[in-house]
Design brief:
This protein has five helices and eight strands. By secondary structure, the chain is α+β, with helices and mostly antiparallel strands. α1 runs antiparallel to α4.
Length: 203
């Protein structure tokens, strides 16, 4: 599965407005075209940051589905209102799922379930040696992603180029932290504390 990790910087005080619009208008309308709206989140440390995950079976479906959605009637009607809440929507990592995000019924009963996303970066791809080391740990990871190197086949939506990223999600948000051994050459770590929105399938 191809997964986009999308982090949007919003205009101050507009996050709940975007989430209400997104959860109402942009979930089923994308999934009808073959995409998976995997998860939508509030960043608990950045009040004007909206984070979401979008999945595709493969890159061919991605190219087709994005063209159809952004050229279609739902985005034509509601896209301007969504864009009006945003300062930047180009912070996007294109990844491939090693462990796909789990999906729960969107509108079922739920408890608060904040989670943490850890993003490791290095100056070369994360190879099989690294992924095998990670798989042997007791991380509690519920989803694992790594950079997809295929060319962006919908250039109207930029993705971050030249990144080598490894992303893993844990819950609860205070699950034990793990540092990659120095031999693996991790040069930067980011952590996101995320609260799923009311209609997030990943929670």
């Amino acid at each position: 599965m191809i997964v986009e990790l999308r982090q949007y910087t919003l205009r101050p005080g507009r996050r709940d407005e975007l989430i209400e619009l997104f959860d109402k208008q942009f979930v089923e309308s994308q999934e009808e075209l073959g995409m998976a709206v995997l998860g939508q989140f509030r960043d608990l440390d950045q009040p004007d940051r909206f984070v979401w995950l979008r999945g595709f079976p493969d890159m061919a479906v991605r190219g087709r589905a994005l063209r159809e959605f952004y050229g279609g009637p739902v985005w034509k009607e509601h896209g301007p209102a969504a864009n009006a809440t945003m300062i930047d929507s180009d912070d996007v990592l294109l990844t491939r799922a090693i462990v796909p995000p789990p999906a729960f019924p969107r509108d079922g009963e739920r408890a608060d379930s904040a989670m943490r996303a850890t993003i490791w970066y290095r100056d070369r791809p994360f190879d099989d040696t690294f992924t095998q080391w990670f798989a042997g740990l007791n991380t509690g990871a519920v989803a694992v992603l790594s950079t997809e190197y295929a060319e962006n086949n919908f250039p109207a939506l930029p993705v971050r180029e030249g990144e080598h990223a490894f992303v893993w999600f844990t819950r609860p948000v205070n699950a034990g932290e793990i540092e990659a051994p120095e031999r693996f050459g991790v040069v930067k770590t980011e952590q996101l504390r995320l609260m799923p929105t009311a209609r997030s399938a990943f929670r």
